[in-house]
Specification:
It comes from Actinophytocola algeriensis. By secondary structure, the protein is of the alpha/beta class. It folds into 3 domains: 95 residues, Urease, subunit C, domain 1, CATH 2.30.40; 259 residues, Metal-dependent hydrolases (TIM Barrel, Alpha-Beta Barrel), CATH 3.20.20.140; 73 residues. It is built from 15 helices and 17 strands. The strands form 2 sheets. Strands 1, 2, 3, 4, 5, 14, 15, 16 and 17 form a 9-stranded mixed beta sheet that branches. An 8-stranded parallel beta sheet has the order 6-7-8-9-10-11-12-13. Helix 3 packs antiparallel against helix 9, helix 7 packs across helix 9 and helix 9 packs parallel to helix 10. It is globular and about 75 Å long. The chain starts with a strand and ends with a strand. 57% of the residues are buried. The site of zinc ion (ZN) has 6 residues, from loops.
């Protein structure tokens, strides 16, 4: 049995050594055997040594909200699946960001396709399902272009029997008029009609002008639509009425069904004994709060969603927490692309208020920021401590979703050796990733 020693690193593990400076993590047979004050390299004989001097050693990240990470339909709208190379590239990206386990919340992926994905890549990919009757109907109306018979037949109940660890993502930016509508469906239809390519933010402004943040036909604001058309360079090319028809036609047909799907899926999850992971946004907050009052375990996904106003999001998350829900935040595209989010204010406010249980990425139109990048910025801003933030991306996730990463999420003797070595000065500069005791990333590259 080969032994590998992560040599001389500084350990972050909230319940173990707070920050243990200069330790050796000894791994063999895929398991962490011991953690000891660093010894001379020669003491380890023939063991493989990985130099971690001056680096931070943290558990592999467990990301509970990803899309495009399994072969099969994309998103809970059943969109046509990505090419397999793109799925593997997405998994590479998660891996190089220090993630060792992802939960794919596309929701219509079959267990068989999930297993093929998991076999094709070192990152552990876990299954979730959103295939309840109302969610399937909403997907079919909103898109459904990637749904084959086998996906439709692979119900949430079957998925749980075949290893799904949660139901989710229930509701989504594509069926509830969120990000998916803004970066995908609305720009596509506007381009088809006018030949003009608009940005996700311009599209979002049109959407809010027509339906408001909470998605309601009564929120229609003619002046705001005119302004948004002008700002998007569409004045004279698209009328206010046409805009109303496009936006309403894309979002409203699936919307009420998708809302009903939230409650339906929560009940199915309760019966199946798995958590339900929901799309928590301004448009779904009433239903999400309703689910929190029942006794299913609720993961309130991306509770820093850009459709919320800051105070609204904080008050809502506080209520959800009081009701026993797990409050998740997503990095979205907060620090990088900023196509839909405008900055970290809400994310930071959630940290500062002590409301955050878990951190994920979500998809952000393929532009998600790395979890460690968000933690790097947030810890430097002083809104969360490093051990707490690391726990939000590791052990808290393992605790919130019992099947997602058994025996993982901690660096303690006996745990599965999913470990990341990174730069304390720039946490997103991941050097080494070990999964199940095997080094799969070295010097920031796949081996
Ligand atoms: Zn979502």
């Amino acid at each position: 049995m080969t032994t590998t020693v992560l040599h001389g690193g500084d350990l972050v593990d909230r319940h173990g050594v707070e920050v243990g400076v200069g330790v050796d993590v000894v791994v063999s047979g895929g398991t962490i055997r011991e953690i000891v004050p660093t010894r001379p390299a020669g003491d380890y004989g023939t063991a493989e040594l990985v130099d971690a001097t001056g680096k931070l050693v943290i558990p592999g990240l467990i990301n509970n909200h990803t899309h495009g990470t399994a072969f099969g339909p994309l998103f809970p709208s059943g969109h046509e699946g990505l090419p397999h190379e793109q799925v593997l590239a997405n998994l590479d990206r998660h891996l190089l960001e220090g993630t060792t386990t992802v939960l794919c919340v596309d929701g219509f992926v079959t267990a068989e396709a999930l297993a093929r994905t998991d076999d094709a890549h070192p990152v552990t990919v876990k299954l979730a399902s959103c295939n309840t009757p109302a969610c399937l109907e909403a997907a079919t109306i909103a898109d459904g272009g990637g749904l084959a018979d086998e996906n439709r037949a692979f119900t949430a109940q079957r998925a749980v029997r075949d290893g799904a660890v949660a139901l989710g993502e229930i509701g989504a930016g594509h069926t509830l008029g969120g990000g998916g509508a803004s970066y995908m469906y609305i720009p596509a239809e506007v381009a088809r009609r006018t030949g003009v390519t608009i940005t996700p933010r311009q599209s979002n402004a049109l959407k809010v002008a027509v339906l408001g943040r909470h998605i309601s036909a009564s929120a229609f604001d003619r002046d705001a639509v005119e302004e948004a058309l002008e700002a998007a360079g569409l004045a004279g090319k698209l009328s206010v009425e046409d805009t109303r028809e496009i936006v309403s036609g894309i979002i409203l047909p699936a919307f009420d069904i998708a809302l009903a799907g939230l409650t339906e899926a929560a009940e199915e999850a309760r019966v199946a004994g798995v958590p339900v992971l929901v799309h928590n946004a301004a448009a779904s907050m009433t239903q999400v709060a309703g689910i929190a009052r029942t006794d299913v375990r609720l993961i309130a996904g991306h509770s820093n969603h850009s459709s919320f106003e800051l105070r609204e999001a904080l008050a809502h998350a506080e209520r959800l927490k009081e009701l026993g829900a797990v409050v998740d935040v997503s990095t979205l595209d907060t620090f990088g692309a900023r196509r839909l989010t405008t900055g970290p204010e809400l994310l930071y406010a959630m940290f500062e208020a002590g409301l955050v249980d878990t951190i994920s990425t979500d998809y952000a139109g393929g532009h998600h920021d790395a979890i460690l990048l968000a933690i790097d910025h947030a810890t430097k801003a002083g809104v969360v401590t490093l051990p707490d933030a690391i726990a939000m991306a590791t052990e808290n996730v393992a605790a919130a979703i019992p099947g997602i990463a058994p025996g993982r999420g901690r660096i303690v003797p006996g745990a599965v050796a999913d470990i990341v070595v990174t730069d304390p000065a720039r946490l997103d500069r991941v050097g080494v990733v070990m999964i199940g005791g095997a080094v799969v990333v070295r010097d920031g590259r796949r081996v």
